[in-house]
């Protein structure tokens, strides 16, 4: 699960040059995104460059490559996080299941890897999967094993692993029984058959879903088992959709239509809706729909209010992929974990000695409309808040910036509410924009209407990780448009284009529409800033965008934070709270 394909093509020559220096020949092997090639080498004695891009409170191991959060769960007083990890370098390859534990999902203790390739059923890789807690409080892991390198990216089967000692709250040792694999493809695509979900139980059977594809049709196959060992495939797919490509890391879970608390994965009831999420290999984004689950037929059907495909809803409209949720039985909440890859070049990743981070865990619940999910950083993050500064009722005229001083701007948490007196100056929404692919519409408009393009009601928001003279900055901003039927569209943008003077970085402009009632003429924004990542939550988690950035000047104590307005309508900072963030224990 690497970065976008277009960006990968840009860095491929550099990667091939580097591999040639190591006498590694990839001719004819096909370097592609995600699980494509095992690069079986070790990078030792990496030059310890100034690690200004290393995060302070996001999860990342001390060194090397990480990607998917595999099987988060709670067991005997600890949250457990398993994740895809390369112990031999800062590029994808040699993947094992690394393992860390935490009491708060923010500070982590690393343990030895839980699952590593060692047997014929996972000889060439231990890829993503999930954890399920069986009756008697017994955890079990389902994961994808690679039994042959061909056909590329590998012949895939599903295996299970169990703890060696159920009384160990750390679950340090795991056993891979010799009766693996327990699910093998028969008529399915053997090279696209992976990432089993957390299992749920009803009608006397355990159920799990495996992601796959047939040509360009994405498919989720459902399997049933009475004992979690012998599995039978359902006669029909759990869900399928044409022209969506490979469905990686599927996730299926219930949500309450009445309250914000989470539900166990096996929950049923009248006030329950269901969420089905896939990570689309072709687009590198996570998409979800909300719908119904036919318990008798074991089929999922999206609601007619959920677009099923590339134009559908996303957890995050930025750098976010291979996500996984789990039910927290202690605090009765559904938690979302996701991975953000690097936007720096492969050579820079190798020089850093690490690549990839996990974003802050988010609580997930159903919006009162029942049409989408809301998400918010877990409350445990607030414990890292240090010194606070605040602004109240500050007016920001067109072209003005207001610096937020007194905090560590490179490692901060900012929560702000903007207000405005009128919607009259909102720009007209240009119908010509409808020519853009609908799945990239918001992103495309953000690219055209950047923070430096003057408007009516907006752009206004934050200039994060800004240098002293604004040679570099990453703007997070709103822009409000008026439509021909006298309604309004609210756009949230996170624009990495001016983030760095380094011309080699991938600096996209991300965008998402915010479905919000503007009757109170207010918009809220919370941004988590952590050296090389910015997570932004609009309107209480209605729309979320995460960006990776690599400034050359606006680093560490040289980073600044501003509020700005580049629209003709005066904006008021009704309330702004900003905190310096302490460093978490993450390795």
From TrEMBL:
Which PROSITE patterns does this one have? Answer: GLYCOSYL_HYDROL_F32
GO aspect biological process, one term:
carbohydrate metabolic process
Record carries keyword Hydrolase: yes
For this UniProt record, the keywords arranged alphabetically read as follows: Glycosidase, Hydrolase, Zymogen
Show where the Glycosyl hydrolase family 32 N-terminal domain sits: 58-377
User: Listed GO molecular functions?
Assistant: hydrolase activity, hydrolyzing O-glycosyl compounds
Domain named Glycosyl hydrolase family 32 C-terminal: residues: 380-580
Membrane spanning stretches: none
Q: Name one Pfam family in it.
A: Glyco_hydro_32N
Q: Which family does it belong to?
A: Belongs to the glycosyl hydrolase 32 family.
Q: What is this protein called?
A: Beta-fructofuranosidase
